[in-house]
Amino acid sequence: MEIGIIGLPKSGKTTVFNALAKGEAQTGAYSSATLDPNIGVVKVPDPRLDKLTELLKPKRTVPAEVTYIDIAAPAKGFGKGEGPGGQFLAYLSKVDALAHVVRAFEDERTPHAEGSVDAERDIAAMNLELAFSDLGIIERRLERLKDSLKGAKQQERELIFREQALLTKIKSTLESDIPIREQDLSEQESKEIENFQFLTAKPMLLLLNISEGQIPEASSLEAKFGDRYRRPNCEMAVLSGQIEMELAQLSDAEAQEFRAGLDLGESGLDCMIRLSYGLLGLISFFTTASDEVKAWTIRRSTTAQQAAGKVHSDMERGFIRAEVIGFDDLDKCGSLAEARKQGLIRLEGKNYIVQDGDVMTILFNV
Ligand SMILES: Nc1nc2c(ncn2[C@@H]2O[C@H](COP(=O)(O)OP(=O)(O)OP(=O)(O)O)[C@@H](O)[C@H]2O)c(=O)[nH]1
Ligand SMILES: [Mg+2]
Asked: Between the N and C ends of the chain, which has fewer C-beta atoms within 10 Å?
């Protein structure tokens, strides 16, 4: 899973990146727009994995991973309705979800490019920018389709007409300010446009970046912005990038203590992972083979055979069956042997739909 961190200049993207990836990328008053993006691989914290390690005492424990990419926008043309440019767009179109860092903190040392802090204005500007990029892609495609109609055979013409109709519908809805992720597309339609990698079709996480002084208002800000911006495929959260970044440099125990003292609740990373898993419809399952406990990320409604393919393509190809036990059952039994004795380990076939927290041993033959 890859999440692209986007935002207007000086909104705190790199600060949030550092908080999530425990990174030490340069933040500050110079423009980082000409630098390469910061890429960080983050281990997904999962208390169930810790518990499994305690129970099964494997030699190795391997958590699932999420990649965060901090992509500085080109200084020119961004927020001006001209659409994100070349390299920037190339990075963005690859990611599974977007995290939009929205500046709510005041800081005289870092003046806002627009001269004032106004989160709603900035959200609208970014949404416009993303929509503009998608509209550009659609318009170019429609031109191409029009050209290819000439000299097309009857069968091809039908396909072209269909694509034209779909893109025209999406375009006009987009023009009335409805991002593709909120458009009521059928599963089939969503599949047909998948390859365009439209930016407004990606699940979106709005991160309102507040200062330390605004922490007492965090829940009222969350209620206010949540009401306004939480939609299907769009989540929002309030966090203080600066503080989260500082806490990320501490040990877990120290960070927890500070967090309690500041009345901060769950960590920025935990919150991001929870929200992005929810947005992307992701769940985790665990494997325990060969002295290794490992967490895997899959989409909801994945079959046992497809899930096996995550582990190894041979396992998918040669899938025979899986031995499955839910995490809670295993936790209650305390060991796989006890679970087996109680008959709680089930045999499941290739069409079994894997559930969040399943602990699986995959039997295969190639
Ligand atoms: N007070 C305060 N300052 C912050 C916060 N988050 C970021 N800053 C400051 O704002 C400045 C810009 O932060 P960055 O994280 O570099 O912002 P950016 O969006 O990556 O900036 P560019 O990459 O240049 O567009 C830095 O000086 C940060 O210290 C915050 O939550 N509170
Ligand atoms: Mg930056």
From this structure: C
- Quote the pLDDT of residue 236: 94
How many whole angstroms separate alpha carbon 17 and alpha carbon 38?
8
Residue 170 covered by a domain: yes
* Mean pLDDT of all residues in 47-58: 94
Q: How far is the CA of 140 from the centre of ligand 1 (A)?
A: 36
Mean pLDDT value across the chain: 91
Q: Are residues 357 and 271 in the same domain?
A: no
Q: Residue 113 Cα, ligand 2 centroid: separation in angstroms? A: 14
Task: Name the H helices within 44-85.
Answer: 47-56
Domain around 159: 130-199
Distance CA(43)–CA(297), nearest Å, equals 12
Instruction: Tell me, yes or no, whether 22 and 112 share the same domain.
Output: yes
| Nearest residue by C-alpha to atom 13 in ligand 1 | 12
Using the 3D structure, point to which of 199, 217, 242 is the last residue of a domain. 199
Which residues touch 48 (CB under 8 Å, ≥6 apart)? 284, 286, 327, 331, 357
206 in the same domain as 188: no
Is 52 a member of any domain? Answer: no
Q: Are 308 and 321 in contact (CB under 8 A)?
A: no
User: Which of 15, 17, 264 gets mutated to test ligand 1 (max ligand atoms within 8 A of its CB)?
Assistant: 15
Torsion of CA 216, 218, 224, 227, to 10 degrees: -150
pLDDT digits (tens, 9 = 90+) for 288-308: 987 899 999 999 999 999 999
Note the pLDDT tens digit of each residue in 311-330: 999 999 999 999 999 999 99
Question: Is 182 domain-assigned?
Answer: yes
Q: What is the pLDDT of residues 86-105, one digit of tens each?
A: 777 888 899 999 999 999 99
Q: Using alpha carbons only, what angle is made at residue 270 by residues 269 and 273, rounded to the nearest 5 degrees?
A: 85
Q: Tell which of 199, 221, 245 closes a domain.
A: 199
Task: Please report whether residue 57 resides in a domain.
Answer: no
**Amino acid found at 267:** S
Across the range 155-176, mean pLDDT stands at 96
What are the pLDDT digits (tens) for 238-262? 999 999 999 999 998 999 898 888 8
